[in-house]
């Protein structure tokens, strides 16, 4: 059928159908999909592409969608590298040690040591002891980082995903009503009687879930979910790791195109069923490098491309401004916070 009389808006349904067919295979191999971005699960023993600390890791995925070429009916595949931050899939106790290493006492103890991202478990037990004078501040700091966290239990035959709501008392003191036996029991004794399981860390606070249940920290794993809120240090690491040269950028996209679990359409059963073919070469477009803009401070001092030693960097020491401001002899400072 001749589609030349149709506008791209008229062909949106066709584009949507083809997009579903071309992304069905990679969707089945992705652990997380958001806004046409696909992220694969991490490998065993690895938390992601880069560890950002505080239980977070930077994952590298890809963005993929179909677009119409401007002014034509030609369909193009927009393929790009995508980075985002996820919580690391790990035992909650490991997450706990990472978080508590950022407390003031953790920074004092481990600050002088290199490549230390986790606090010692014995130190964590000491500072999360209910008898510790600073217990409340330590518990509040932990709750700040783990509230609404999704965790997966290890104690049931069928793992269950929970959402942390609060911190309870220690497993040795936290009680709840055991409906089957119609009695009040501590969390520690419940696991000992029902599961024949002796807790290794009964002095640690229990995790109170949204459904009201109490689960020991040692029996849950952190689920890898996307994280939007990160620290300034993590944001700096993210920018450093995700900033790559154009040559590396091109190679990264080619790797996505050649990965059978991502966008390798030559072995995609859905693309074959629809008799679809996506060219392996990238589209080449004419372009030019814009010259660096000149910055004029005075008639005597100007920043030009010839004066810059490194791209985007220039020396400010000899700079003389046109008319410096006169600093007053009497001044004051008002803090309104």
UniProtKB/TrEMBL annotation:
Signal peptide: none annotated. CDD domains: PAZ_argonaute_like. Residues 126-224 form the PAZ domain. InterPro entries: ArgoL1 (IPR014811), PAZ_dom (IPR003100), PAZ_dom_sf (IPR036085). GO terms for molecular function: RNA binding. Transmembrane segments: none annotated. This is PAZ domain-containing protein. It comes from Rotaria sordida. The lineage of its organism: Eukaryota, Metazoa, Spiralia, Gnathifera, Rotifera.
């Amino acid at each position: 059928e001749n589609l030349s009389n149709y506008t791209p808006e008229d062909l949106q349904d066709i584009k949507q159908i083809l997009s579903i067919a071309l992304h069905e295979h990679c969707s089945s191999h992705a652990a997380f999909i958001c806004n046409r971005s696909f992220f694969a699960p991490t490998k065993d023993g690895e938390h992601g592409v880069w560890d950002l600390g505080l239980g977070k890791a930077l994952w590298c995925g890809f963005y993929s969608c179909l677009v119409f070429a401007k002014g034509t009916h030609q369909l193009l595949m927009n393929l790009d590298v995508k980075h985002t931050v996820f919580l690391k899939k790990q035992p909650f106790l490991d997450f706990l040690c990472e978080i508590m290493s950022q407390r003031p006492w953790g920074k004092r103890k481990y600050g002088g040591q290199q490549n230390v991202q986790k606090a010692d478990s014995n130190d964590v037990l000491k500072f999360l002891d209910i008898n510790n004078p600073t217990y409340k501040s330590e518990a509040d700091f932990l709750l700040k980082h783990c509230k609404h966290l999704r965790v997966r239990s290890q104690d049931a035959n069928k793992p269950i995903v929970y959402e942390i709501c609060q911190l309870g008392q220690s497993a040795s003191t936290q009680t709840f009503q055991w409906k089957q036996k119609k009695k009040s029991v501590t969390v520690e004794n419940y696991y000992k009687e029902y599961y024949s399981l002796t807790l290794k860390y009964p002095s640690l606070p229990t995790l109170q879930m949204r459904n009201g249940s109490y689960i020991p920290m040692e029996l849950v794993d952190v689920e890898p979910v996307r994280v939007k809120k990160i620290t300034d240090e993590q944001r700096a690491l993210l920018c450093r790791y995700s900033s790559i040269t154009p040559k590396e950028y091109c190679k990264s996209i080619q790797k996505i195109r050649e990965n059978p679990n991502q966008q390798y359409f030559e072995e995609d059963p859905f693309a074959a069923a629809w008799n679809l073919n996506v060219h392996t070469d990238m589209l080449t477009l004419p372009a030019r490098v814009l010259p660096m803009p000149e910055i004029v401070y005075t008639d005597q001092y100007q920043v030009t491309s010839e004066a810059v030693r490194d791209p985007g960097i220039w020396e400010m020491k000899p700079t003389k401004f046109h008319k410096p401001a006169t600093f007053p002899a009497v001044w004051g400072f008002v803090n309104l916070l």
